Amino acid sequence: MRSLTLNVFVWFWLTILAMLIMLVTLSSLRSEVVKTRPLPEHAIENLHHLAKNLERKAAGDPSKLNTLIRSPRFSQSRWLYLSHTDIEKSLSSQDNDLGLDFSHLYVAAESPPFVLFTERYSAHGPALVVVGTEQYQLYQIRPLREPPIYLRIRFMPLWEKALAILLPSLLFSWWFSRRLTRPIDALSRAAKRFANGDLSARVEHQSKPQYELALLSDEFNQMAQRIADNMSAQKRLLGDVSHELRSPLTRLLLACGLLESELSEAQMRHLNRIIKEGHSIEDMLQNVLMLSRLEGQNQMLDIAEASMAAVLGEVLNDAAFEAESLGKTLYQNYPQAAQLRCDMVLLASAIENILRNALKYAHQQVYFSVEQDAQQWRFVIYDDGPGVSDEVLDKLCEPFYRTSESRSRDSGGIGLGLAIAHRAILAHHGKLSLSHQHPHGLRAEIMIPL
């Protein structure tokens, strides 16, 4: 029964069975229903002929009618009923042992003969019988021992049929849909969490799902585990390689320092270039190690209460100096005395990376401001540069991503600045949001909980 195919098949037939049971139940509980249809011409003639015979034989004496309709001549193989406006005066050729309800058998005198159907009998009539001062309507009764189920259902009104079909189908369909969609919803939630970067997301079902969906969930969990393992191995390898490269790089820079006193001026220029590149590589390795620790959540945060000036003062002074050297202007507005809880070094590094990125691509101006609302600090940085496309905007925080593959390290770095800033802000349980600044430029908003 855990097969999805079998479940669909069983629930489909259960729905049909429930509708049939509902129809039968309603048809058994409801009161008697009357339907009519026209009576054929030959039957009308026979009925009128029988009525005339009764009038002639009774010879104007109503007291003779009861004996007449019970006589073999009239009652043989048929059940006659003379309906009167006064139910006490109505006459029957047979005793009503079946308890049939004949209250329907009196209609307006001008009504043409018809066939009247109920669930327990049918009646052909009426034909007018006038004996003396009394008027009767003649019917021929044909009882039904047990009305067939199809006839009982046929007699049901349209609203009861609709109720019998819609109610079970809606209930069973909703029940089945919930059983079917609950594991799909669990799989969807896990996939969404995994896509948003939560590599620990797995599908967990509260009850056993159908076999096919259980198999799909298991395969998703296996896939997620393999991806998580590969990502962990990649980060571990990146961290290990970066760490191992630092030792020979340190020895290389030390050896360069020892050579400074032994080289000519021309050779010193080349050596200085080597030393500069060595320090650049050291900075890159430091960034890679930082990113690796942040992604692996191995970076220990030193959370403490600090003033805004202590966190941002040096960063903004360096950024203002850099902006001036580039012929650009940095506008800043923040509450210097305000207090916030953070890792001063990590948060300052994140803001510095974003500020340097803004200064690099701004045409003339970069704006920095800090605001506080009821739940968080909001750091806003935007520039008047060319901005980026929508496609690039979604990838700016990916490690090693650069907007142009042809850009050199001097212009575009190795694509770690925004990635490190993003991870550092996440480590503070905050959020980094990048968007377009109108009419042009890039806007970065950092939200840090109070």
From TrEMBL:
Domain called HAMP: residue spans: 178-232
EC number(s) on file: 2.7.13.3
SMART domains: HAMP, HATPase_c, HisKA
Membrane association type: Multi-pass membrane protein
Transmembrane segments: 6-29
Main location: membrane
Localization, UniProt: Cell membrane
Catalytic activity reported: ATP + protein L-histidine = ADP + protein N-phospho-L-histidine
Gene3D superfamilies: 1.10.287.130, 6.10.340.10, Histidine kinase-like ATPase, C-terminal domain (3.30.565.10)
Keyword annotations from UniProtKB, A to Z: ATP-binding, Cell membrane, Kinase, Membrane, Nucleotide-binding, Phosphoprotein, Transferase, Transmembrane, Transmembrane helix, Two-component regulatory system
Domain annotation Histidine kinase: ranges: 240-450
Pfam families documented for this protein: HAMP, HATPase_c, HisKA
A GO MF term: ATP binding
Protein name (Swiss-Prot/TrEMBL): histidine kinase
Organism field: Pseudoalteromonas fenneropenaei
